Amino acid sequence: MSDNECLIHVDFSENYTCKLASEIQAMHFSQTQATLHTGVLYTGGVEEHMCFGTISPSKEKSPPAIWVHLSPILDEVKAFYPSIEVVHFFSDGPTTQYRQKGNFFLLSTEHLNRGFKRSTWNFFEAGHGKGAPDGVGGHLKRTADKLVSQGRDIGSAQDLYRALVDSGTVRVFYIAEDVVEHPQKNA
Fold it and tell me: Can you tell which superkingdom this protein's organism belongs to (predicted)?
C-alpha cells in the first residue's frame, strides 16, 4: 500500500447488551442494547494501525447508517493523514448492510465529498468472529463486562461509550441515535 492510501476493515459486532453491576431478575426481560461498529485502520507508510469502534443506541445498519458510523473514522484520516487520497474498505458482505446498491451509491459520492480522490470496497466471505474487527468488538465487550463486574453500571449506549472512551488502545466514538436514524437532517 502506498503512502497516499489507507485501508479500513470494518464489521458490525454483535450488539452489546447493557448491564448493571447489581440487577434484579426482571432486568433480564428489558435489556437495552448498543450497536458496535468496529474496525481497524491501516495507513500506507505507517507501521502502526488504529483500532476503533463506534457506539450507538440505534439498531439501524442500513447504508446511510454505515456511513454515519464511518464518518468519525474518515474525519480522523483527514485530520491525521492529510496526504491520503485513496480509501480501501474491506468488510464481509451481508446484502442488508454493505453489499447493496445503496452502499455503492454512497461509496461513489462520500469519498469525493470528503476530499478523497478514489475509493474501493472489497468483500470477504462471511465468517463470524474471524476478522480483525471482530477482535476489536470482542475486546470492547470484554472490557465493558470487566468494568461491570468491578461495580460500574453500563445501562445505555452512552454509558458504554463513557466507560470505554479512556479504557485503552481502541479509539471509541459515540453516534447519537437521531444522527443514525435521520442522517440527512444532520449533514
Answer: Eukaryota
Cell triple for 143: 472490557
Per-residue pLDDT tens for 114-156? 999 999 999 887 666 578 999 999 999 999 999 999 999 999 9
156-182 as b/e: b if 16+ CB within 10 A: ebbbbbbbbeeeeebbbbbbeeebbbe
Give the H/E segment covering residue 88: strand 86-91
- Cα(76)–Cα(3) distance, rounded to whole angstroms? 16
* Residue 14, in any domain of the structure: yes
Instruction: Return the sign of the alpha-carbon dihedral for residues 129, 132, 134, 138.
Output: positive
Segment 73-116, tens digit of pLDDT: 999 999 999 999 999 999 987 677 888 899 999 999 999 999 99
Number of H helices, E strands in the chain: 5, 6
Give every CB contact of residue 108 below 8 A, 6+ residues apart in sequence.
none
Question: Is the Cα dihedral 14, 156, 139, 82 positive or negative?
Answer: positive
Q: Residue 187 falls within a domain, yes or no? A: no
Cell triple for 124: 470477504
Identify the CATH number of the domain in which residue 107 sits.
Answer: 3.30.420
